[in-house]
TrEMBL record:
Residues 789-910 form the Glycine dehydrogenase C-terminal domain. The lineage of its organism: Bacteria, Bacillati, Actinomycetota, Actinomycetes, Pseudonocardiales. Its cofactor is pyridoxal 5'-phosphate. Keywords: Oxidoreductase, Pyridoxal phosphate. This is Glycine dehydrogenase (decarboxylating). One of its GO terms (molecular function) is glycine dehydrogenase (decarboxylating) activity. The keyword Transmembrane helix does not apply. It comes from the Bacteria. The glycine cleavage system catalyzes the degradation of glycine. The P protein binds the alpha-amino group of glycine through its pyridoxal phosphate cofactor; CO(2) is released and the remaining methylamine moiety is then transferred to the lipoamide cofactor of the H protein. It catalyses: N(6)-[(R)-lipoyl]-L-lysyl-[glycine-cleavage complex H protein] + glycine + H(+) = N(6)-[(R)-S(8)-aminomethyldihydrolipoyl]-L-lysyl-[glycine-cleavage complex H protein] + CO2. NCBIfam families: gcvP, PRK04366.1. PANTHER family: GLYCINE DEHYDROGENASE (DECARBOXYLATING), MITOCHONDRIAL, GLYCINE DEHYDROGENASE, DECARBOXYLATING.
């Protein structure tokens, strides 16, 4: 008889392996029990009941999501969806082109957590690697465009053009509200500019500028957007056109193909004021539309108007060269309604890829890639001409438009049967774009699609010898570019590999330390979630290819829209916004359009609490709304009496209120239903900023407690990594009455409602290629796992608050003394008595090997801490113990044991070089370098404290010369 093992685990409990939620959530059961004991509750459920107000928390909420899959099963499902995608050879063009990502960059940047889990480089001393990479990016853009100053990336080409429009309006002297747009600009760019212009009262006039200055409309205008080359591929000499724009008191924005500028005279040499575009074809896959790093560069005199982020050069406390973000862009959102842009996210990870593509290839390699694409286009045009097909333009870079009267559909269909997507311009014209990946075989299919007789075709080598370039002689580039040594040093894979490693070693990312940033939710970006983004079935899709090519990815989109609606309690979701700021803008446009559709266009007041994130106010102004601030009380909550006064005062013109829930102060306000009700009774809509959704999932839903619209940060709550400051995705969820006003897109009707507000991003589904990350997270967590993550994040924040409160008081708490998913530590009184600033504490944390929390937001002189659910107890304790030790160091300063001007805090961080040199401080080297003992994890910052003020006075925003390093 076989002996029965009563301890045997049933096969049903073993066959699916360890649940993914057990990998994602950091604290083990015993650790969680200790945390709950410190908090003073018996279970996570009890914590949720005590912390979340009854009027908000949904009892027994069960999210209607699929049962959780393990990592292998979720990836298998995604593989099956990927197999339903059918990328063709994409020769559509329109700003999206085939490119080859060098494997050394793919593996060591895009797939490397040292790069993709990093945060925005607000702490420059532990961000020197990615700051240098971004400085390289800025240098590439400035050199190729021929204007002196470029920023550290934009969201995409179309939104960069829209930002260019608003820049020249505020920087110029023209009184006109007219902005002229070249009819040959990319069609998606024209429509995004229109969407952005309408609420600002800007009139967009689309004009045929092919005739040069003669094509400009009569009357005044403040600026013009010119295409170089155009969507048609045509390359025109625009120097006289720009001169005429200037003579008429306006400024010129040029949308330029960066790869073409290796061969073409740069816009800065023909008078451009602003140059915008994309770096997609610098090694970043098309990805069904994104993410890609857009760019913007400006002429001298417009530096302080530049939106987005700007990396510049300063020095550290020892006088050594150091990089940092310039103040006017780093703190753009603090300007609130006076901000010139609402952008708080860039595309840093993709900008790093593009910059390293340029570093690896150098100027000669880039020129060779551009020349190859151009030569294939020139051969294509010549063969078509010889075959009797009219080529519309004589001067072009990589795109040929052919006239085929009445036969465009037939040509496109034949090419598609051969595996190639061409662009149907109209019934009589077909566009063909060549790129880095174009081959002879591709041209053969195209020739056949146009009906050329294969027997009469001239061999390409013979044709090559007889075919001149199609670049106008007067527009050929003669100036040098990328002369800095960094673009000539790392040509071998070994050299680039080591360069990338040197840079990443200078930074702190999530692969090295907890990043306890309040309001920013730096949580685990699981490898299984990240894996699909580089699969070619997703990454090689063109956003304007027939939708059936992307059937599997569109199912990912549909699933995500449905799941996010369920999680939030909304009725419809749009995934088009490619950043939280763009989600805010899209949500407010929906509210504005709703009021207009009801005949209440006068409703233009947006109430915003004083505690709100600054992008809220900036977004409201961009959406054509007037900002009115609602006071907060001493506890950080919305002051209801003041809200009632404002609702009454603006009964006729109230459009909306924007609130964050839980509040920006990290508190579950128990009045949120009352706030929503007051605004609704006043005729307004309720916008709930979804930045803090990581404290709500499975506990409460915005659409159920009174909100009408929210944006959701997929790069926070749903695990898309921050990537050093981007990519981000900021979809919006809306109630049914706002659904008709979601974004749409002119080139993909399925991307939004016909009655929508227009596109707010270049691509129909925004940054579509990274949506599988959030899909995988939700699919593997399931409803119960998401709820567990929320409750654990709340537990982690309350644990930290309880442990540290006696050392650094917690500023705000909600009912019962609990915080939500983050807590604010108040250093103001400590700073007053000791002279130690919040900056000193943040820099000193570097010596402890820990990234600092969010500094001085939303309250100056404070640190906002958000531990998230994915940090285990050991890491939480490491942070708490570091903060306690720092408080003991402050006490030594107060007691006079260390001088106020010479102690480890004011001198932090300490580099290895500073410790190895002469030492004449009042504290020991070991106290400086190893405050927690030599067994603790150690991060050596590459520079000492960076002089921010000096850097802001002296903007140097491209690679400094070698002499700067030598000195």
């Amino acid at each position: 008889m076989t002996e029965v093992n009563h301890d045997r685990i049933p096969i049903a409990a073993l066959e699916h392996g360890t649940p993914f939620a057990d990998r994602h959530v950091g604290p083990r059961p015993a650790e969680l029990a200790r945390m709950l004991d410190v908090i003073g509750v018996g279970s996570l459920e009890e914590l949720g009941q005590r912390a979340v107000p009854d009027g908000v928390r949904e009892r027994d909420l069960a999210l209607a999501l699929p049962d959780p899959a393990n990592e292998a099963d979720a990836l298998a499902e995604l593989r099956a969806l990927a197999d339903r995608c059918a990328p063709h050879t994409e020769m559509i063009g329109l700003g999206y082109h085939g490119t080859t990502t060098p494997p050394v960059i793919l593996r060591n940047v895009l797939e490397n957590p040292a790069w993709y889990t990093a945060y925005t480089p607000y702490q420059p001393e532990i961000s020197q690697g990615r700051l240098e990479a971004l400085l390289n990016f800025q240098t590439v853009v400035a050199d190729l465009t021929g204007v002196p100053l470029a920023n550290a990336s934009m969201l995409d080409e179309s939104t960069a053009a829209a930002e260019g429009m608003t820049l020249v309006r505020r920087a110029g002297k023209a009184k006109s509200a007219v902005f002229v747009v070249d009819a040959d600009a990319l069609p998606q760019t024209i429509e995004v500019v229109r969407t952005r212009a309408e609420p600002l009262g800007i009139e967009v006039v689309v004009a045929d500028l092919s005739a040069g200055a003669a094509g400009l409309p009569d009357g005044e205008f403040f600026g013009a957007l010119l295409a170089y080359p155009g969507a048609s591929g045509a390359v025109r000499d625009q120097e006289e056109l720009i001169a005429e724009v200037h003579r008429r008191g306006a400024m010129a924005v040029v949308s330029a193909d960066l790869l073409a500028l290796t061969l073409l005279r740069p816009p800065g040499e023909i008078g451009a004021d602003v140059v915008v575009g994309t770096t997609q074809r610098f090694g970043v896959p098309m990805g069904f539309g994104g993410p890609h790093a857009g760019y913007m560069a400006v002429r001298k005199g417009l530096e302080r108007q530049l939106p987005g982020r700007l990396v510049g050069v300063s020095v550290d406390a020892g006088g050594d060269l150091a990089y940092r973000l310039a103040l006017q862009t780093r703190e753009q959102h603090i300007r609130r309604e006076k901000a010139t842009s609402n952008i708080c996210t860039a595309q840093v990870l993709l900008a790093v890829v593009a910059s390293m593509y340029a570093v690896y290839h150098g100027p000669e390699g880039l020129r060779a890639i551009a020349t190859r694409a151009h030569r294939f286009a020139a051969l294509l045009a010549e063969q078509l001409r010889r075959g009797g097909v009219e080529v519309v333009h004589g001067g072009f870079f990589d795109t040929v438009v052919a006239a085929v009267p009445g036969a465009a559909d037939e040509v496109v269909a034949r090419a598609r049967r051969g595996g190639i997507n061409l662009r149907r311009v109209d019934a009589d014209h077909v566009g063909v774009s060549c790129d880095e990946t174009t081959t002879r075989e591709h041209l053969a299919v195209v020739f056949e699609a146009f009906g050329l007789d294969s027997g009469a075709l001239v061999g390409l080598d013979e044709l090559d010898a007889a075919t001149p370039d199609a670049l106008p002689t007067a527009l050929r580039r003669t100036s040098e570019y990328l002369t800095h040594p960094v673009f000539h040093t790392h040509r071998s894979e070994t050299a680039l590999l080591r360069y990338l490693r040197r840079l990443s070693d200078k930074d702190i990312a999530l692969d090295r330390s907890m990043i306890p940033l309040g309001s920013c939710t730096m949580k685990l970006n699981a490898t299984a979630e990240m894996e699909p983004i580089t699969w070619p079935q997703f990454s090689a899709l063109h956003p304007f290819a027939p939708a059936e090519d992307a059937a599997g990815l569109l199912e990912v989109v549909a699933d995500l829209e449905r799941w996010l609606a369920e999680v939030t309690g909304y009725d419809a979701v749009s995934l088009q916004p490619n950043a939280g700021s763009q989600g805010e803008f899209a949500g407010l446009l929906a509210i504005r359009a709703y009021h207009h559709a009801r005949g209440e266009a006068q409703r233009d007041v947006c109430l915003i609490p004083a505690s709100a994130h600054g992008t809220n106010a900036a977004s409201a102004v961009m959406a054509g709304l007037r900002v009115v601030v609602v006071r907060c009380d001493d506890a950080g909550n919305i002051e209801l009496d003041h809200l009632r006064e404002l609702v009454a005062e603006h009964a006729a013109d109230l459009a909306a209120i924007m609130i964050t829930y839980p509040s920006t102060h990290g508190v579950y306000e128990d009045t949120v239903r009352e706030v929503c009700g007051l605004v609704h009774r006043g005729g307004g809509q309720v916008y709930v900023d979804g930045a803090n959704l990581n404290a709500l999932i499975g506990l409460a839903r915005m659409g159920e407690f009174g909100a009408d619209v929210s944006h959701l940060n997929l790069h926070k709550t749903f695990c898309i990594p921050h990537g050093g400051g981007g990519p981000g995705v900021g979809p919006i969820g809306v109630r049914e009455h706002l659904a008709p006003f979601l974004p749409n897109h002119p080139l993909q009707p399925a991307a939004g409602p016909e009655t929508g507000v227009g596109p707010i991003s270049a691509a129909p589904w925004g940054s579509a290629s990274i949506l599988p990350i959030s899909w995988a997270y939700i699919r593997m967590m399931g409803g119960d796992g998401l709820r567990r993550a929320t409750l654990t994040a709340v537990a982690a924040a309350n644990y930290v608050a309880r442990r540290i409160d006696g050392y650094f008081p917690v500023l705000y708490t909600g009912q019962g003394g609990y915080v939500a998913h983050e807590c604010i530590l108040d250093l103001r009184q400590i700073s007053k008595t000791s002279g130690i600033s919040v900056d000193d504490v943040a820099k000193r944390l570097t010596d402890y090997g820990i990234h600092a929390p969010t500094m001085s937001f939303p309250v100056a002189g404070t640190l906002m801490v958000e531990p998230t659910e994915s940090e285990d107890l050991a890491e939480l304790d490491r942070f708490c113990e570091a903060m306690m030790a720092i408080r003991a160091e402050i006490d030594k300063v107060v007691a006079g044991q260390w001088p106020a001007d010479d102690n480890p805090l004011v001198n932090a961080p300490h580099t290895a070089a500073s410790l190895a040199g002469e030492w004449n401080h009042a504290y020991g080297r070991d106290e400086a370098a190893y405050p927690m003992g030599t067994s603790a994890p150690k991060v050596w910052p590459p520079v000492r404290r960076v002089d921010q003020a000096r850097g802001d006075r002296n903007l140097v925003c491209s690679c400094p010369p070698l002499s700067a390093y030598e000195s």
